[in-house]
Amino acid sequence: MKTLCVLSFETAAGNKYIYDGNTATVLPVDDVLMDCIMAFGEKDRDSVRHELYERYGNSRKVNTAIAFVEDFIKNKGAFYRDGQYEQKERKWLHDFDGHSVQSALELAGFMEQIVINVTEDCNLRCRYCFLSETYENTRNRTGDTMNEAVAFQALDFFFLKMKKIAEYNPGKMCAVTFYGGEPLLNFSLIQKCIDYTKKNCPVSFIFNLTTNGILLKGEIADYLVENQVFISVSLDGTKENHDRTRVCPDASGSYEIVYNNIKEFQQRYPEYIRINILCVFDYGTDLRRNEEYFRKEKLPRIGFINQVLPDHTDYYKQFTGEEEEAFRNAYIQMLNQFYNNKRQGRQPFGYADMMFETSLALVLCRGRAEDKRLPILPFTNTCMPGTKISVRTDGTFDMCEKIDYHFPIGDVYQGFDYEGIAEVIKSYNQAVTGACHTCPISKVCTVCFARCTEKDTFCQIDCRTQMDIFLFQLTLVYSLYEENPDVFNYFENKVEWTFQL
Fold it and tell me: Which of 131, 143, 316, 344 is deepest in the core (most CB within 10 A)?
């Protein structure tokens, strides 16, 4: 039995397209081509030709459609999935072991980042922090800090893996990222790790740091700039928007401190471009005020705008239905403004650009037909555990700084627990990917390990919402492409600029 794996959508101008889930190709279609694609799911070539001749006549358009669809199915495996596809993709879902995981991580050369959680302490008490009691499945804030011995052992392990990968990937580059809590509370360890990396890392590297900005000043800022660290500073917008949730231990707002530190940083290092702003929003955020604020303020570029995560928390219960509706209305108004700016060729400004255009990345940079995923993780767009190492203060390895603490993948003393990683992947495949072999968005699905945790296991999430979002994004992108073929050149140039850094 064959399953059709395409999404149909129509642009604002009324033109019809399909997205083929097997090849990640977007094709313009008319009734003839669409009927041809549909017919090939149940009929052979002669039956398809007969059916289309009866419906549309013996025309060149019909013959061209038949030739195209047949060739696309034969040579690219387009449009349909059958039992053979399912058998092929599911062959390795559960039939693998720790050795397979080790080979995937080392031979495939995917490992690229280590996250050093230098402290679990923080000098703010942000009300939406995912590392707090606000979320059920993540660790809460503690006073624990990492020591030099743990940090250096973690780096030694990472460097050894990078050296092995570099033997067959000589251009490999890695990232050493400092995280918390608030990492600058343990700045002395950050300095030691940077010096240690410079002396011992066997491949090219970059340094990243995420900070709330409270301590980003003076000698600390000097050192980070001197060592070319990529700095991400949390600033949620206007004073009112920021201070509503990003508060100090005494519940006072942190805006003035963070804003003044950023402005002082800019005055001190006007040419330093390796700094960006991280923004978070919820239903209480005044989007229009933020839009105006970032347009007028001469601040570093916005790196990300993220919504407060709705999973495993009752955070959103604080908002009334009226507040949620007001937020959605403002969101739609800003989206319409973004759309009109893009179709008229205006370069978007920071806040709207990052809120909407960056969210279209999976549509603009989606995987293609020949892109391969690891056979043990053929579905969803999740990272392979071990690609990134997040090191807890006690030296335990996690696959990500955002996942809860029920899925460790090793530690600084024993290295990777490859058999443990294999069991985690099998659990994920079992719980989450049951229907993925028939899903048209399996190449661009945003589901990952961290999103599907349920205490010490994994759970299925709402796939229908994932598909609806992607379908909306396709419609938006191709409606804009029809009006302005160069509409996303800005996005492409920005991606190239980021990689050049």
Answer: 131
CA distance 208 to 213: 14
CA distance 357 to 335: 10
Residue pLDDT, tens place only, 196-252: 999 999 999 999 999 999 999 999 999 999 999 999 999 999 999 999 999 999 999
In the block, tokens 């029920």 appear at: 406
Record the tokens describing residue 432, joined without a space. Answer: 């989450």
Q: What is the pLDDT of residues 315-347, one digit of tens each?
A: 999 999 999 999 999 999 999 988 888 888 776
- 292, with CB counted inside 10 A (0-12, 13-18, 19+), is middle
- Cα–Cα nearest to 355, from 336, 374, 370, 371: 336
* pLDDT tens, position by position, 47-101: 999 999 999 988 899 999 999 999 999 998 899 987 776 677 677 778 889 998 9
d(CA 128, CA 132) in angstroms, rounded, equals 8
> Helices 148-166 and 187-200: crossing angle, nearest 10°?
30
Distance set, CA 223 to CA 145, 205, 272, 437 (Å)? 21, 17, 13, 50
Question: Residue 33 and residue 61: Cα distance in Å, rounded?
Answer: 9
**What backbone phi and psi angles, to 5 degrees, belong to 379?**
-115, 155
> Is pLDDT of 433 > 60?
yes
Residue among 426, 449, 479, 448 at smallest CA distance from 100: 426
Q: What would the 3-class secondary structure string for 187-241 be?
A: HHHHHHHHHHHHHHCCCEEEEEEEECCCCCCHHHHHHHHHCCCEEEEECCCCHHH
Q: How far apart are CA 133 and CA 423, in angstroms?
A: 28
